[in-house]
Design goal:
By secondary structure, the chain is of the alpha/beta class. It folds into three domains: about 5-115, Cobalt-precorrin-4 Transmethylase, domain 1, CATH 3.40.1010.10; about 115-220, 2-Layer Sandwich (Methyltransferase, Cobalt-precorrin-4 Transmethylase, Domain 2); about 230-270, no CATH class. Helices cover about 45% and strands about 20% of the residues. It contains eleven helices and ten strands. It has helices spanning about 20-25, 35-45, 60-75, 95-100, 115-125, 140-150, 165-175, 200-205, 230-240, 245-255, 260-274; strands at about 5, 30, 50-55, 80, 105-110, 130-135, 155-160, 180-185, 195-200, 215-220. The protein has a five-stranded parallel sheet with strand order 3-2-4-1-5, sandwiched between helices. A five-stranded mixed sheet has the order 6-7-10-8-9, with helices on both faces. Helix 3 (about 60-75) packs across helix 4 (about 95-100), helix 7 (about 165-175) packs antiparallel against helix 8 and helix 10 (about 245-255) crosses helix 11. The N and C termini lie far apart (about 65 Å). The mean pLDDT is about 95.
Amino acid sequence: MPLVLAATPLGDSRDASPRLVTALAEADVIAAEDTRRLRALAAALDVTPRGRVVSFYEDVETARLPKLLEALHAGETVLLVTDAGMPSVSDPGYRLVAACVTEDLPVTCLPGPSAVTTALAVSGLPSDRFCFEGFAPRKPGEKARWFAQLATEPRTVVFFESPHRLAATLGEAAQALGERRAAVCRELTKTYEEVKRGTLGELAAWAGDGVRGEITVVLEGAQRREVSVGDLVAEVAARVEAGERLKSAAAEVAVEAGVSKKELYDAVLAARRG
């Protein structure tokens, strides 16, 4: 029997699919990020799980893998659910899926709510092409490198951030990226859902008053610009100063800007010598 990844409601239990209700009732094993939340969701859906319920959060994810794989090999159905949204998307699940793929065990998915696509849809920003960045980096050096990469990312960017770090991250983004448009989506589908739109600076000022709840940020992509190799030398230098290797930084900037990797690399070396 397969590993079943099931999306759970972001906040409103009425968003649960009929297939999720059936899976909760019939699975042999339910691996839940938070067993208490799983029990509360089951109660809200008026369903009684008949299978074993085991915790499967980040700190125990690796340790739980052998038993779950053993259950799958024995022909049991294992249902994986996280607190909200789709398992493995910045939540536990990836390691188990990868292990199943390695051991040629079937994996299927019950689609449903996702904070990523929900926020993108209501943001008012271009949604034809986007990228998902998970949680914003915490360490200053990693965050600086992240902003350097986003400086030339043309796609709309979606990422998660904790409420107590939101104001600082938005302020740093405004300094690094300029006054791009963005949307902060808070408590999606819940009673106090709020979508705040504006420039990065405006949103940083708003968040400075204090924000609570689950946060998803949608950021406008960089505007494509006509550039010469010379214009890009400073950008590569900034990324190298933030900790990237010169060769990889030059290659990435060249690809993003549509210029020759070799020409840009040689220009950076020439600037260093000169």
